[in-house]
Each structure stands twice: as C-alpha cells, then as structure tokens.
Amino acid sequence: MSKVEQFIEGFRRFQQQLYGDNIRLAGKLKRGQHPQALVVACCDSRVDPALLTDCAPGDIFTVRNIANLVPPYESDDALHGVSASLEYAVCNLEVRDIIILGHSSCGGIEGLLSAAEGEMVGEFIGRWVDIAAPARERALSRIACGEKEELSCLCEQEAVLTSLANLQTFPWLKARVDAGELHLHGWYFHIETGRLLGYRTASNSFEVLVDGYKPLSS
After folding, report:
1. In order of start, what are the domains of the chain with their CATH numbers?
2. pTM of the prediction?
C-alpha cells in the first residue's frame, strides 16, 4: 500500500471516529469554529501541534511555516500570509492565547546559521528565515560556533523570542495583550527527549513544562 493509500485509509478512520462515533462534535464543527488558541508551529513533519497537544478538531487554529516564524507588522501591498492568519485569529476568532511552538533539530534554523557562514539557502528559504537574524546574532554572541548542538538549540529558542516580540508589533494584537484579553506563550519541544519547555519572563529563560519521557517500569 502506498503512502497516499494509507492516508486515504486514515481519513476513513477519522471519518468514522468523527461522524460515526462522535456525532455531537461533528454537529458542533458544522456550526463554525471557536478555537481558544492560535499555535504558530514549524512545517516540520515531526512537530504537528494537534498531535503533540492531543487536541480534537476545532480546538486550535494553526499557522505552520518554516521555523515557526512571525514577521514584524508591515502595512504595504505585499502578500502577508502569516499576518493575515494572525489577523483572522485575533480579530475574527478572538483567540485567548497565542503559542509560538519551536523545536529542536529545526532545518530552518540550521539554514539561518549556515547563512551566517556565507552559504546560499535556497531561493526563498534564506530570505524567510532571515526574519530570525536577531536571534542568530544573540545566540552567536553567547555560544562559540564550534559548539554546534548548543548553538542550534539556543538559536531555536531565541527565534521563538523573536517571534513573540514581533507579535507585539501588530497594533490590534498588542491592544488585546495590553487589555489582558490575549496571552502570549513561547514553547520549545525537544524532539530527542520529548521534553516541553516554556519561556518565563520572570527568569528570562525556558523552563520545563513537561519533563522528558520516562518509560513505565515493568
């Protein structure tokens, strides 16, 4: 069976679970969406926010892009896909929380670091991840280039902070934050251990929200 055929079979199982076994949820979704949170996540196939948070359809509004980045607010005639998604989630859906979900072993951040060494990073990727150039500079100022794993991890976390700062350049978003109607969160998923970290303003650091997975003893 090909992967596409597996996907179709998976959809059949989803269909049965939603429309056959959970008709109340299906009826609720038919009347519209009312997610309480927006998650900005990476396109990485290992980091699906709905799977990671065990959410049902309709629970979260999701924006996914290379390296889970939010660009700063710009009012011009260019095309702004992420900004349009933010506007819809904040102004139309009135979400209460926005989570920037970063992760370890991020290819986009790897490209950002490679660009600092003069390497070309695709036709579009390099320009996109350059949004996080300030994060790269902060990481490079704290960790030597030779410490590749530590540098990548720090840059990935700093990129989350850059996106959190960029969120507040959107005037209608910041107005809701200032009014206490919207809360911003920075998360970091460590794929190798399964650990989830969250940024804490008080300590200016990422702290453990969910510790690494420990198998149950037999």
Report:
1. 1-32 (no CATH), 33-210 (3.40.1050.10)
2. 0.93
